[in-house]
Amino acid sequence: MPSSRSAFGTMDSDVTAAAADYLVIYGDIRQAYTIVDRVGSTILPNGLLVGANRRPTGQVGWLLWRRFGAGLTNASAARLLNKSA
Questions:
Q1: What is the Cα–Cα distance from 34 to 55, expressed in whole angstroms?
Q2: Going by C-beta distance under 8 Å and a sequence separation of 6 or more, which residues neighbour residue 17?
Q3: Which residues are CB-neighbours of 41 under 8 A, at least 6 positions away?
Q4: Nearest alpha-carbon partner for 8 in 78, 76, 84
Q5: CB 40 within 8 A of CB 67
Q6: How far from 25 is each of 39, 64, 67, 77, CA to CA, in Å?
Q7: How many Å apart are CA 10 and CA 18, to the nearest integer?
C-alpha cells in the first residue's frame, strides 16, 4: 500500500558500506533533523581577480561567508533501515 509521505533519494552519493549497512532513513525527517541558518554573514571585496593563467583579469569580485548549523533534534521521529535486518 503506497504511503502518503514524500520520498526522496539520491544515486550520485559516494557511500562506502560498513559492517552495518544502513540503507534508508524513514519517518518524519522535519521533526527528527533541523537545519538552521545562523545569524549574520561576512562579505569582503576582492579587488584583484586572476584568470586560469594566474594573471589579473581586471575584474573586481566579492567573497561571502555564511554559516549554517544542523543536528538531530528528535531521534524517535525517524528510523534507520538496516540491510542485514
A1: 43
A2: 83
A3: 64, 65, 66, 67
A4: 78
A5: yes
A6: 29, 33, 26, 10
A7: 19
